[in-house]
Design goal:
Rhopdopsin 7-helix transmembrane proteins; transmembrane; 3-stranded mixed β-sheet; mainly alpha; 76% helix; transmembrane helix; 3 strands; olfaction
């Protein structure tokens, strides 16, 4: 990788320097990360295995869970490893890779949330046209466009990062690599670069939040014309989506839409949307969604039944084999 720097590695200061707190960080975020991977994998497997979850909403939820798992993997394993390391070192190339992956999957999550809101808008506001508008080919095209948009966004971020010269200080006051912490130690004036960052990442966050807000306002307004049962089901689904939007976009806007200043809470805010939100999403979408819970329950029952049948058939098979051998 091309390197505009005399620095070949960076030292991450992490969340804390206190040895006792570092052990707490290790335990807490290990639990969070394992829970994130297990929860999102369970959602992915359930959607792929269940015939009742073949609607576009669950098609998009599949990609949201996939993006969540990858997004958390960009930062959590390194944070967990560094919590037990005396020297938290990350190479220049690893740092650039982390920035690229972080923005790729973070942007993908934003686009998928917009697609999920669009799906709910069509389902609630234009139910008669829903099968024609949200057919499988359209959903596939939308997901491909989301990946392309995320990739282009990440390319823009990595170009900004690669333009930063580093001539000595290599201490990053953070637990992961991102552009704002790197701006602080770069040997150049980063005002213009920060303006480009706000224009890119900040604009994506603000515009996406605006689109989502308008969409859900229209959706909630249109629910007046639905039956009580229809309103209850639609509100349950939309409430889950709104909770995810607030939890994700609030911290992102706080980080990416401001002048190049740092605050003591920046690292904890970043933890919330890079590790906390991917952990909470499976809980939000399963605990508040009866269809997903029923699909998971049926999947578990099928698995348990097949295992019990295998255990029952195994001794019979062995006994049959023994009898045949004895008779011979």
């Amino acid at each position: 990788m091309w390197q505009n720097s005399n620095v070949t590695e960076f030292i991450l200061l992490g969340l804390t320097q206190d040895p006792l707190r570092q052990k707490m960080v290790f335990l807490i975020f290990l639990i969070f990360y394992v829970g994130t991977v297990v929860g999102n994998t369970l959602v992915i497997v359930t959607i792929k295995s269940s015939r009742t979850l073949e609607s576009p909403m669950y098609y998009f939820l599949f990609y949201l869970s996939f993006a969540d798992s990858c997004y958390s993997t960009c930062t959590a394993p390194k944070l967990i490893e560094d919590a037990l390391s005396a020297k938290k070192v990350i190479s220049y190339n690893e740092c650039m890779t982390q920035i690229f992956a972080l923005h790729l999957f973070g942007c993908m999550e934003i686009f998928v949330l917009i697609l999920m809101a669009a799906d709910r808008y069509v389902a609630i506001c234009k139910p008669l046209h829903y099968p024609r508008i949200m057919r499988s080919q359209v959903c596939l095209i939308l997901i491909v466009l989301a990946w392309i948009g995320s990739f282009m966004h990440s390319i823009a971020q990595i170009i900004l990062a690669l333009r930063l010269p580093f001539c000595g200080p290599n201490l990053i006051d953070h637990y992961c690599c991102d552009l704002q912490p790197l701006f602080k130690i770069a040997c150049t004036d980063t005002y213009l670069l920060n303006l480009l960052l706000v224009t890119n990442s900040g604009a994506i966050c603000l515009v996406s939040l605006t689109i989502l807000t308008i969409s859900y306002i229209v959706i909630l307004h249109s629910l007046r014309n639905h039956s009580a049962e229809g309103r209850k089901k639609a509100l349950s689904t939309c409430t889950s989506h709104i909770i995810v939007v607030v939890l994700f976009f609030g911290p992102c806007i706080f980080i990416y839409t401001r002048p190049p200043t740092t605050f003591p809470m920046d690292k904890m805010v970043t933890v919330f949307y890079t590790i906390g939100t991917p952990f909470l999403n499976p809980l939000i979408y399963t605990l508040r969604n009866a269809e997903v819970k029923n699909a998971m329950r049926n999947l578990w029952q099928v698995k348990t039944t097949s295992e019990n049948r295998r255990r029952v058939e195994s001794p019979i098979s062995c006994l049959y084999t023994y009898d045949m051998t004895t008779s011979l």
